[in-house]
Amino acid sequence: MRKIISFMHISLDGFVAGPNGEMNWIKVDEEIFDYVGKRISEGDTALYGRVTYQMMENYWPTAGDKPGASKHDIEHSKWYKKVHKVVLSKTMKEDGLINTTIINGNISNNINEIKQQPGNDILLFGSPGATHSLIQLGLIDGYWLFVNPIVLGKGIPLFVDIKDKIKLKLLSTRQFTSGVTELNYTVDRQ
């Protein structure tokens, strides 16, 4: 069965965005882009909440075609165009969307059906609202976290309203020269 892996940049105090959704505190550079690019290039399905999907859709389909596009933009744009996208949204319709599935209800059954299909891990990018819903439903199988060396003090937390403990097993760590630390966990369901 395929796994859903939540890919998030977080602050040291556990926030994924500032109080108004700010993400200008996230450190990204070529070292991180290259590392992340290798991992996500193996992915064939990306999962988003509506807001993150619309932000991605407004940028990535043409990012690699722009004059002076970076290596990262070219590579990620190619990947984005070919990857199957799954979007959690109560308001969007699939009409006219290419290679995109909208889930607007019965999240558990729909996500579990996708997890049963052949393919690689399903990468959940950003999307704090969608992540919170999937955590509540016990549908996230792993966390791929990039801890940024900053304390925000307030903002949108990664974990909210956790009813039961979530036991994790550390798979790997990596320190980047920017000070960002990668923590790769799997959910321990035993």
TrEMBL record:
It comes from the Bacteria. GO terms for molecular function: 5-amino-6-(5-phosphoribosylamino)uracil reductase activity. It holds the Pfam family RibD_C. Residues 2-180 form the Bacterial bifunctional deaminase-reductase C-terminal domain. One of its GO terms (biological process) is riboflavin biosynthetic process. InterPro entries: DHFR-like_dom_sf, RibDG_C, Riboflavin_Biosynth_HTPR. PANTHER family: 2,5-DIAMINO-6-RIBOSYLAMINO-4(3H)-PYRIMIDINONE 5'-PHOSPHATE REDUCTASE, DIHYDROFOLATE REDUCTASE FAMILY PROTEIN (AFU_ORTHOLOGUE AFUA_8G06820). This is Dihydrofolate reductase. It comes from Hydrobacter penzbergensis.
